[in-house]
């Protein structure tokens, strides 16, 4: 049950690290940044025939309920820049490859949890097969791409990021929402792994490739980390902050829920969960949403979001002014807009 | 040992399976000659000699006649062939056979491999359940076949490069990395194949689910990648990254089937290289790069690994037909059940064209698996695959013999024998 609710939540996301379903402010900032960086190129150019082979197989999934279809039906582009070394451009594509690979691997279905309502088991098995292979293919290309950068420190850094993301997603699937053991502090640590590490370390690596000193690398890392965390908070908070948006479903691991759980304490949380569950233990998310909005979980989330936005801005101050820096700052500002 | 001389044999003379094997047809003839007396060997020898024009006709080569003439000092076959040339067996082979004190490859590498799995586990920095999954197959119960080859190759190259008795830490790392990459790919393969057991245990996907299995495999791969980067040699990083790509491409190749029989065999060998041999070949190459800058040495190491790797997989494919379920730790006829047509089946198809349709539909119809198995056991598909494996081992020996003599080099030669003789 957990994977499905989580996935339909994720399914609304685009592939890109930064896409977001609604706010015009965020999208505008990102598209401005794209303009600075130049025309977008697809990372598909790095891949070859196998991808069309996979696409042919994935088409067989149309009409089934395998999550891979959601991921495959979106597509995203990554941007190039005016003053960017080819190795940095390649790094950007590699980062997106890795991100996509994990989105794909995240969609793998546990066959034991399969139910009749999911459709024929064969489809799920086939979909899994395609998901594993496609994800592996993307990761393999990321590895060979990394090798071509000819910088073993960068390879080590990005490989560690892959490990971080992997660990992060693993633990995300492990924690049961009802246990409610996450505190605010541990939420940050745990969210950094799947959502922050890749961006933070790629920013750092981009600096390393251009032979910037460790201080610059560190500021780039900080920017990436805080932007990613802020963005995750912003995403999670959208549902609770925008007026007139009553969600059909949301993740119980999202920030406002986690903070709410900590504020009301485990007993009251269990009580509230019982209040919103029907006989079949299915949660009425609208009711739960209402309960959460009444407490301070949301405002705590908003505060934390501002904090990360500011930390990101702070990091950017260490770079000389430029169009690129302004674009990055605008993205950090946009985190606090809803 | 019979001495043959070089003969000009045209490529087109040969049937397809032998044709795809590069170069050393005459060596194959010699191998088959050595196997004469066994029925299948004799028949195959006949066929090959006819094809290559060595003998006038099949009758001239009847086994009884050969056995009779063996008692004479010079067999007529040899007399007839005095004017023709076949490849000379390298004298080194003879020196190996006469050396009684051959060190068993496993015990030679034992010391270096002792803490291999413990050290691998130290590289898998994680906690709780993920740690359990990652450590699951590094319990020391695996064959450690790949690390052993890598260590022996490293030492052999070191002797060759005037660094006798040394094993560089980076080379040891490569051994660990190769085992980690191998294990990560196994974990993913088990999900793709929906396997229940491996090495006598339940697979990770059966115990913890497919999702966690894939994530654990990714994690092991990332740890291998980090260890690789830490060696600090860009060439070595490139060489081993190629393996990761080959592994995936090999899996993709398994998704498709070829219509044409000729293409099918080529496709099978290429897939075998990508899925099995590439890792061994490139790991061997990597350890040679770390100690020696001569590209010829790298090529020797690579070719040894490549040929042993292919032979290893061919034997694996044979065992799928000939061994029972409990010995292997995984079920047999597994390849057929997955719809895969391996060496024995492809050879058998030449004798039983009924297999052609079954191959194309990937043994998906009811009763296909059983019937195909019967055909294979009735045919000489297994023997033919065995000869092919022997050929690859011969090539491996030929390559490695070009390195300076050492106990490790001899162990690597002996290892090919072990590959051919294994039963699990």
Automatic annotation (TrEMBL), chain A:
The keyword Repressor does not apply. GO terms for cellular component: mitochondrion; transferase complex. GO terms for biological process: isoprenoid biosynthetic process; ubiquinone biosynthetic process. One of its GO terms (molecular function) is prenyltransferase activity. InterPro entries: Isoprenoid_synthase_dom_sf, Polyprenyl_synt. Keywords: Transferase. This is Prenyl (decaprenyl) diphosphate synthase, subunit 2.
From TrEMBL, chain B:
Its EC number is 2.5.1.91. One of its GO terms (biological process) is isoprenoid biosynthetic process. Pathway: Cofactor biosynthesis; ubiquinone biosynthesis. The keyword Metal-binding applies. GO terms for cellular component: heterotetrameric polyprenyl diphosphate synthase complex. It comes from the Eukaryota. Its cofactor is Mg(2+). The keyword Metal-binding applies. Its main location: mitochondrion. Heterotetramer composed of 2 PDSS1/DPS1 and 2 PDSS2/DLP1 subunits. Belongs to the FPP/GGPP synthase family. This is All trans-polyprenyl-diphosphate synthase PDSS1.
């Amino acid at each position: 049950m957990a994977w499905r609710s989580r996935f339909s939540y994720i399914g609304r996301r685009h592939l890109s690290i930064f896409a977001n379903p609604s706010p015009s402010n965020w999208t505008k900032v990102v598209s401005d940044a794209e303009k600075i960086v130049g025309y977008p190129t697809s990372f598909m150019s790095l891949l070859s025939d196998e991808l069309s082979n996979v696409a042919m197989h994935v088409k067989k999934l149309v009409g089934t309920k395998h999550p891979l279809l959601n991921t495959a039906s979106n597509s995203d582009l990554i941007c190039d820049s005016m003053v960017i070394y080819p190795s940095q451009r390649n790094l950007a594509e590699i980062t997106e490859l890795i991100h996509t690979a994990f989105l794909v691997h995240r969609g793998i279905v546990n066959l034991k949890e399969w139910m009749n309502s999911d459709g024929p088991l064969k489809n799920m098995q086939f979909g899994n097969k395609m998901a594993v292979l496609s994800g592996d293919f993307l990761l393999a290309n990321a590895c060979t791409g990394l090798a071509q950068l000819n910088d073993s420190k960068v390879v080590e850094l990005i490989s560690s990021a892959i490990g971080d993301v992997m660990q992060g997603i693993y633990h995300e699937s492990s924690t049961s929402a009802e246990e409610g053991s996450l505190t605010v502090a541990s939420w940050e640590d745990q969210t950094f792994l799947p959502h922050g590490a890749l961006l933070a370390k790629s920013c750092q690596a981009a600096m390393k490739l251009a032979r910037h000193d460790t201080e610059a690398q560190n500021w780039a890392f900080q920017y990436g980390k805080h932007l990613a965390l802020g963005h995750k908070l912003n995403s999670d908070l959208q549902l609770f902050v925008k007026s007139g948006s009553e969600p059909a479903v949301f993740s119980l691991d999202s920030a406002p829920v986690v903070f709410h759980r900590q504020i009301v304490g485990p007993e009251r949380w269990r009580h509230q969960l019982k209040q919103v569950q029907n006989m079949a233990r299915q949660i009425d998310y609208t009711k739960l949403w209402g309960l959460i909005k009444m407490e301070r979980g949301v405002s705590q989330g908003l505060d934390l979001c501002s904090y990360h936005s500011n930390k990101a801005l702070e990091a950017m101050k260490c770079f000389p002014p430029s169009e690129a820096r302004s674009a990055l700052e605008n993205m950090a500002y946009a985190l606090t807009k809803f | 040992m019979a001495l043959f001389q070089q003969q000009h044999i045209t490529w087109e003379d040969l049937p397809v399976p032998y044709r795809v094997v590069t170069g050393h047809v005459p060596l194959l003839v010699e191998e088959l000659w050595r196997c004469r007396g066994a029925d299948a060997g004799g028949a195959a020898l006949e066929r090959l000699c006819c094809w290559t024009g060595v003998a006038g006709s099949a009758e001239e080569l009847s086994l009884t006649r050969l056995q009779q003439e063996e008692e004479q000092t010079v067999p007529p076959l040899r007399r007839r062939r005095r004017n023709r040339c076949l490849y000379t067996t390298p004298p080194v082979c003879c020196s190996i056979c006469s050396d009684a004190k051959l060190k068993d490859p496993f015990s030679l590498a034992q010391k270096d491999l002792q803490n291999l799995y413990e050290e691998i586990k130290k590289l898998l920095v994680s906690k709780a359940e993920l740690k359990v999954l990652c450590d699951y197959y590094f319990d020391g119960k695996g064959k450690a076949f790949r690390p052993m080859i890598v260590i022996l190759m490293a030492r052999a190259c070191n002797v060759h490069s005037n660094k006798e008795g040394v094993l560089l830490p980076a080379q040891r790392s490569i051994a660990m990395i190769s085992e980690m990459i191998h294990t990560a790919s196994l974990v993913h393969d088990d999900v793709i194949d929906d396997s229940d057991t491996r090495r006598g245990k339940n697979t990770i996907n059966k115990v913890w689910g497919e999702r966690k299995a894939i994530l654990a495999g990714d994690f092991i791969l990332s740890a291998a990648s980090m260890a690789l980067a830490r060696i600090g040699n860009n060439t070595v990083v490139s060489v081993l990254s190629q393996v990761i790509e080959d592994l995936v491409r090999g899996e993709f190749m398994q998704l498709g089937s070829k219509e044409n029989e000729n293409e099918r065999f080529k496709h099978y060998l290429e897939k075998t290289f990508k899925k099995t041999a590439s890792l061994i070949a490139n790991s061997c190459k990597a350890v040679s790069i770390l100690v020696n800058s001569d590209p010829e040495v790298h090529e020797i190491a690579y070719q040894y690994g490549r040929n042993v790797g292919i032979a290893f997989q061919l034997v694996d494919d044979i065992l799928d037909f000939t061994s029972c379920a409990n010995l292997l730790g995984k079920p047999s006829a597994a390849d057929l059940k997955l719809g895969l047509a391996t060496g024995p089946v492809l050879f058998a198809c030449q004798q039983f064209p009924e297999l052609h349709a079954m191959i194309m539909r990937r043994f998906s119809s009811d009763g296909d698996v059983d019937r195909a198995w019967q055909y294979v056991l009735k045919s000489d598909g297994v023997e033919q695959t065995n000869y092919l494996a022997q050929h690859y081992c011969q090539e491996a020996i030929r390559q490695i013999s070009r390195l300076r003599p050492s106990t490790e080099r001899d162990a690597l030669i002996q290892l090919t024998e072990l590959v051919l003789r294994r039963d699990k």
